[in-house]
Amino acid sequence: MPLLSADSSKITRKQSFRSLEMVKVDMDKEIDLQPFGVDYGRLENGLVYYVKCNPKPKKRAALALAVKVGSILEGEDERGVAHIVEHLAFSATKKYTNHNIVKFLESIGAEFGPCQNAVTSFDETIYKLLVPIDKPELLSEAIQVLAEFSSEIRLSKDDLEKERGAVMEEYRDNRNASGRILDAYWTLMMKGSKYADRLPIGLENVIKTVSSQTLKQFYQKWYHLCNMAVIAVGDFSDTKSVIELIRTHFGHKYSALDPLPISHLPVPSHVEPRFSYFVEPEASGSAVMISYKMQVDEVKTVKDYREMLVKSMFRTALNRRFFKVSRRKDPPYFSCSISAYVLVRQLKAYIMTSSCKEKGTLEALESMLIEVARVRLHGFTEREISVVRALLMSRIESAYLERDQMESSSLRYEYSQHFTDNKPIIGIEYEAQLQKSILPDILASEVSKFAEKLWTSCSCVIQIVEPQASATLDDLKNIVRKIDKLEKERSISPWDDDHIPEEIATSKPHTGNIVQQHEHVNIGATELVLSNGMRVCYKCTDFFNDQVLFTGFSYGGLSELPESKYFSSSMGSTIAEEIGVFGHRPSVLMDMLAGKRVDIDIEVRAYRRTFYGDCSPFYLETALKLVYQLFTSNVTPDDEVIKRVMQVKEEAILARERDPYTSFSNQAMEINYGNSYFFRPFKISDLQKVNPLKACEYFNTCFKDPSAFTVIIVGNIDPTVALPLILQYLGGIEKPHKPIFHFNCDHIKGLPFKFPKTITREVVYSPMIEAQCMVRLCFPIELNKENMEEEIHYTWFLSKLLETKLLQLLRFKHGQIYSASVSEFIDGDLPCLDSDILGDIRIDFSCDPKISLKLVDLALNEIFRLQEEGPSDQDVTTILEIEQRVHENGLQVNFLVLYAINIVLVLLATKIRKILNNLHLSSSSQSPLDISIWINIQDGRTE
């Protein structure tokens, strides 16, 4: 198999990687410790800085303050203090009080959460900002905010009391099934180390009772500039002026106390594997986790870098085997994968995770261990490694092609890792040369050899999770002994792989032609009508050198079906995807596409049937071949696949029934939408109504008629190359002689539901292991069909306004929630719906069950106040600024350009400019939410 497919021989642009010279590799050559391509230095007070000019996104800077201080430095009575300090940084500093940092940053378009946030881990705390810098003073002010975080966090008693509830709510959010499972696994993995008892979230008692004085002592003891780095990556005119700003805001700062050394705390290794059989009644399913701990790789030489590639190839090859096993008859698990994680400083783990049927964990564990043992005994085949080699070569090619188009936030992450973990940064140009030179010489035997590091005697930890006990720890140990015995006896057979066809399309289509062409000058796109009736619209962009996005849609979906056909048809795409919608089984297609940067998916929803995906410009032909296959292949029911799909669906239903939040969500759904079959979650009784033959028959009608589809293609495309491919593979899809569907696409049937007409208050009680509470407030809305696009946009604006105001009220003022989410559900945004558009705005937040009703009243009073008084000028200005910044970033992203073209074609108009550029909302505008209100409160009670 060639390293890179010749599929793109016609492409002449951006081929620099393929002409990149291979280098003579000196394995002993040392990797430069200095990070490549960034201004890197240290101020006299010990502060490290990284400054990089990067134009993506334009007029933005990604900033960070990285602090080598995490929960591992906490004393027993300080457990959770590092995280609380991080919270209080956004509350008050010497210059900013009363969360004015948040207000200031939002006023310049940096939204709280996405653009201003922080994270505390075991070994470090990272404060992150993404700010606009189109005004001279903004960058200086943002860097000053980081300087305030470094030494001026106020940490007063009042600040702490206001934020305590928010931290407690974040703690409570983690006390669910997933949190308990991960906490138990972490404690077992880190047994014998201080890390086992230093989860960053801390202890409930400490969160509730710790004093502000304790916070100040921790802050003064550990927050020293010699333990910090400022990272600035953005669309700067030069780096020197940015370094001067850092010097201005940080250079005069010196710690009053001498910094204490931060010592390395080892995690002891162990020969005997550790076992855990964790019974979690609220678990979302049965799972197996196997971890192998080892020291973090130090990449100091080219030889070390080569070894890193070998390990990456091992994981990729083993994951491909796991996937193929999961698609066999009566598979031992539904999914399985292996990943490498850096757990804490200087310690990593290779973790294999599988999900399986209930009472199937022992079978899953046995299969996972057998696959590792199979590699030790027989190794990977050269064919498998050639596939993996092509994949890695393809990834580095893509990275190289887009080396000048990396997002500033991605570079910020790399520099923070260099500071906290000494991860080398050698530059994508050199890395591409190394991989192109090294990968061809890595043999299957070398990759297979890494399995020797994954014995159960190598600091191995095995955890089984089940909702109900069906085995014992002794059963786990017996499985390990059984596999050891089979391996010693060499009773494990070699890997048996599938035959892989060479061609995706078995027949070459007859080329179609263009019957109409129209230029959408306002958006720079070209629209074609092909001879088979398909509409194709394409736009060339240069946002990313190695990206083309595409989508195709047709009106008419599940809403057209009566209840008698709904359950089978709604499972059609799920069953079809497992059988193979492109003419080949997924496990076979995976190998056929190895090294080709193509991804495509399908979706059948209420009002539309859609395919969508992305590809490299080099593999546009492959992508269009897959679309051709989608339209020309029929899915035939396969008993083995259907059995597996139905089993996975049944397990998902049972898992949902175990979830204590299910009774809440079901009741909320019924209140909001009635007992409509479309919105009601699948039950076991519904699953029994599914006819797999009917499901496949329905799916086979969904993607058949090209004349009903509109296709949009956006990205780095050369029309002289793309047009012949479009005509061949899209124009070559034959139009059926008779209509497939017998409904009018210009008059789509709405979903069968009605919103309630009166106010409803409901409290749902659900037994829980640990008490939690979820609150939902829903407001029905009705949008005028004639002004749909404007009203949808106003709905988004209103949702963002409500989210901002409720966060200010319930978190920043009262300190009783961690986050609030306001989202909108719109029942279709199609011009072909017969009536006005129904929908709702949903407000969700979690809180202490004891104060839920009080918080509901506070939230409603704020909403009523906004209805009566309208938002303030400052509120409107802030939301508009955030929207404007989102829009500016969207103009540099292919996805949003594709979405904009979609709107234009759907509306058959050119109103997109008005939507994106001319949004104005008066501060006296009234909310449309004066219809009716219903409230659902889920109050967890511990039994």
Keywords:
seven-stranded mixed β-sheet; disordered C terminus; 23 strands; 19% strand; globular; alpha+beta
3D structure, described in words:
It is a single chain. With 943 residues, the chain is an alpha+beta fold. 40% of the residues lie in helices and 19% in strands. A hairpin with a 4-residue loop joins strand 12 (514-520) and strand 13. The N and C termini lie far apart (61 Å). The relative contact order is 0.11.
List the helices and strands and how they pair.
Elements: E1 39-42, E2 48-53, E3 60-67, H1 81-89, H2 100-107, E4 116-120, E5 125-132, H3 136-151, H4 157-173, H5 177-189, H6 204-209, H7 212-222, E6 228-234, H8 240-250, E7 274-279, E8 286-295, H9 302-326, E9 335-344, E10 347-356, H10 361-378, H11 382-401, H12 408-421, H13 428-438, H14 444-449, E11 460-466, H15 473-488, E12 514-520, E13 525-530, E14 535-540, E15 548-555, H16 563-570, H17 572-579, H18 586-592, E16 598-604, E17 608-615, H19 620-632, H20 639-658, H21 662-673, H22 684-687, H23 692-702, E18 710-715, H24 719-730, E19 760-768, E20 773-783, H25 788-813, E21 820-826, E22 837-846, H26 852-869, H27 873-890, H28 894-907, H29 912-917, E23 934-942
Parallel strand pairs: 2-6, 7-11, 14-18, 19-23
Antiparallel strand pairs: 1-2, 3-5, 3-6, 4-5, 8-10, 8-11, 9-10, 12-13, 13-14, 15-17, 15-18, 16-17, 20-22, 20-23, 21-22
